[in-house]
# Entry
Amino acid sequence: MSDNAKSPKTGHYSPALDLRKHPPGTMFCSFCGKPQYDVKKLIAGPGVFICNECVALCEKIMADTPDPNPAEIKNLDTLETPTVLGMIKGYNMAYIQVRDRMQEAVDILRKREVSWADIAAALGVSRQAAWERFS
Ligand SMILES: [Zn+2]
# Structure
């Protein structure tokens, strides 16, 4: 973390200030916002990244917290509105990245003259559905 990424008002680290000085393509931890250069490791998931520091924090939280009831986690209706709003924001970012990556993959397959039937079979949808979604 660099000092010029600290808010002049609060003195706290500000991912938004850090974003301005990094070139396009820089990867950031989806949890703390730090750029790839400021952490030891950045692990990629589908549409998200997590740094070694956040993994360490998560491990501590997991060790300190009793296992929650999985049924409660899945029931979105029990969560507070700001939590659900935060979730759809994260889901949407992941969705857009996965969608774009899928389109890129299908475009490559089509360039290789892979048939719509084979692409549809890989996706578990009809040939028509695959064509309408990706052509
Ligand atoms: Zn992080």
